Amino acid sequence: MKKILLALLFFTISASCFAQKKVADVAKFATETINLGNIKQGVPTKGIFTLTNISNQPLIIEQANPTCGCTISDYTKAPIAAGKNGIINATFNAASPGHFDKHLTVKFAGIDEVKSITLTGDVLSAQEFDKLKAAKK
Q1: Closest among 25, 80, 70, 82 to 49, alpha carbons compared
Q2: CA atoms of 31 and 79, how far apart (whole Å)
């Protein structure tokens, strides 16, 4: 009986030592989706994602990759201290009218899980955009 309990205790301790950290353990995003609203075709528009390091270790963003060529990203390159904020800038170049949902995948150092964040909105032609802007005045 002692051998079984000892083996069970050893297994439990081993499993907890090898447990994988998740993004939710180290970072909290202010929002995971930014709605850019109505944007003008051909005019690059930026969304800024803010995240907070909720761990007690410095947090490093390894990658913040868009899933298409119409979006460009930049992010905090320096380690983010515990309790401090970092940013991911995502710039969408609206080439054609219509609704869009553009995703970026974010990878943190030491975390196997990848986080997906989203830019969404509607692209209007220059004429539609100007007409909507004039109607709001």
Answers
A1: 80
A2: 21
For the chain, the domains span 21-136
Topology of 21-136 in CATH? Immunoglobulin-like (2.60.40)
Average pLDDT taken over every residue of the chain:
88
Query: C-alpha dihedral over 20, 88, 76, 27, to 10 degrees?
Result: -30
Residue that has been written with the tokens 């969404």 in this structure: 120
Q: What's the average model confidence in pLDDT over 49-76?
A: 94
For 5-40, write each residue's pLDDT tens digit: 555 555 555 444 445 689 999 999 999 999 999 999
Distances (CA, A) of 63 to 17, 20, 34, 37, 108: 26, 19, 19, 26, 7
- pTM confidence score: 0.82
Nearest-CA neighbor of 48 among 60, 37, 33? 33
- Of 52, 65, 50, 70, the C-alpha closest to 107 is 65
Alpha carbon 104 to its chain's center:
6
Q: Residue 1 above 60 pLDDT?
A: yes
